[in-house]
Amino acid sequence: MFTGLIEETGMIASLRKEKGSIVFTLRSQKTLRGLKRDHSIAVDGVCLTVIKRAKTTFDVQAVEETLKKTTLGNLKIGDPVNLERPLLPDGRLGGHFVLGHVDCTGVITDIQNRESSKVFWIRVPKKFARYLIPVGSVAVNGISLTISGLDKNSFAVSIIPLTMEVTAFPQYDKGRSVNIEFDVLGKYVERLLEARTARNR
After folding, report:
1. Is residue 180 within 8 Å of 106, Cβ to Cβ?
2. Which among 128, 153, 157 has a CA at the least distance from the CA of 141?
3. Which of the four pLDDT bands, split at 50, 70 and 90, describes residue 184?
4. Phi/psi of residue 155, each to 5°?
């Protein structure tokens, strides 16, 4: 489980295709501390398993299903990525519950410059619009954010200077695809209500 509070931005040092999957070698600093083979790590909001650890890099592998549902297949050598290690039992939950299980990809449709922040509008497939609620939580490329505006199947998030500083958001332009994970609590409530409705028929 993750919090959506990015620890640092790493960089794609190299990548190679391997039987329908992609093995990424990532260079980082902070997230390497204590990181071992078989550990989980969120890369742009996608929970992946470390398959190799070196002195200044680590490898993760994205298989077919992951590549189909996320933006990882679009990454190139030199690209920055948001990194977060799993929450420790005694850790402080400062964002929201993020599982690293991407629901869909969204597209940045507009970027509005404010005096002290930037507002990003992101469009998601219509069937996922029901998970968007005013001032609700959403993870965008692994970043825990608060929904500041809604318009049909699009939502807005306000990015403060600190978030711009510690994440890969400065690299995001209009038209870019991003990984979206909606609040898991809402999805559980929906599933439970569906089961209750089915029993009462």
Report:
1. yes
2. 157
3. confident
4. -140, 160
